[in-house]
Amino acid sequence: MVEANAQGLGKTCYYELLGVDRKATTKEIVKGYRKAALKWHPDKNPGVDTKEKFQEIQAANQCLMDENERAWYDTHRDQILMGKSVDDADEKDASYFTKSKLKPYMKESCFKGYDSAKEPEKNFYTFYHDLFAQLDTEEELEEMVGTEHYKVPLFGGIDATMQSCKNFYEYWSTFCTIKQFSYVDLYNPNDCPNRRVKRLVEADNKRERMRERSKFNDTVHELLRFVKQHDHRYQNHLTAEVAERQ
User: Does 108 lie in the same domain as 50?
Assistant: First the structure.
């Protein structure tokens, strides 16, 4: 299992062992493995004990070259590197925002006023601008290598125009995440004794991920409604539009 291999690494990241990026393609992983294996092969290092290091590199390559193993490792990577038990994994250990992590951001105590001059990093506009920017960054990290990321409308500051506000709210009101949510998997497919059981396990995991994805989307939309209700500039723009029409 990946857990056993990873914990035997002495808390060294698989990607670092192969000298590749976390979004590396299969070809890049193969190239990184060959380079690392050549460097640390025991036959290439007479007088130096590199057997353990070489085994770690082999384990890293075996994991990252398997689609299911890699997805599982990516989800639990932070826990493994921090020496946590993967068996105890839940939402709190996920690297990205989860529905439970977004809930606290729907309180007025999260930000301090609307004045950009006083504590600018904590005022309403800066606070939620950074939050939605982070949500978008996480989506970008989930995209396939070579995919051009769509530049989403920014939340902006206190001086944002009405059209800018509308663009932002329209985009996020139809938001649908592409995150994998593999941390909710019920089973590890690689533990299955045969293909039939593996297909059943993968189907169960897929259903759990779909449920979690739906819940996360609902939470983001709920967060958006909270922000919209407290967005003074947007409310002022609406009032001005009504006055102009009258």
Answer: no
